[in-house]
Amino acid sequence: MNGLSKGIRKVEVALKWDPSPAGQPATDLDVVAATYLASDPHGDPAYVVHFDSRSPDGTIYLNRDSKDGKGFGWDEVLTVELERLDPRYARVVV
Questions:
Q1: Number of domains in the chain
Q2: Residue 16 near residue 75 (C-beta atoms within 8 A)
Q3: Order of strands across the sheet with 33-37?
Q4: Is residue 5 situated within a structural domain?
Q5: For the chain, what percentages of helix, strand and coil (3-state, to nearest 5) are there?
Q6: Residue 75 is part of which domain span?
Q7: CATH assignment of the domain containing 48
Q8: Sheet containing 10-15: which strands, arranged edge to edge?
Q9: Which among 18, 33, 23 is positioned nearest to 68, based on CA atoms?
Q10: Are 54 and 61 within 8 A, CB to CB?
């Protein structure tokens, strides 16, 4: 990558939702990322990152996980470090 490139190096996906009304069960949304090999970009994912997991090389990880949407700021935050992602992966679907 040269100095003129405007390639995307890092992506953060952040979710926020309204908590359930009083007396109702908590609403828990989860952000998930699936990584696909360049040799099979539409087949089964090579791995999936979700709550309490991260990619084998540490390039995809969940920074924040809310179980009820009552937190301050973002409730779920997933980071994907594209510049460090192994070239054998062609797609990341969130």
A1: 1
A2: yes
A3: 47-49, 33-37, 89-93
A4: no
A5: 5, 35, 65
A6: 10-93
A7: 2.60.60.30
A8: 10-15, 76-81, 60-65
A9: 18
A10: yes
The pLDDT tens digits of the residues spanning 32-87 come to 999 999 999 999 999 999 887 889 899 999 876 666 666 667 778 899 999 999 99
Q: Which residue has the tokens 């969940």?
A: 62
- Residue 46 included in any domain: yes
In the chain, the amino acid numbered 21 is P
DSSP assigned state of 46? S
As given in the structure block, the two tokens for residue 79 are: 């980071």
Residues in the chain: 94
Asked if residues 13 and 82 have their Cβ atoms less than 8 Å apart, the reply is no
- Residue 56: phi and psi, rounded to 5, are -55, -35
pTM above 0.85, yes or no: no
Token digits for 87?
Answer: 């070239």
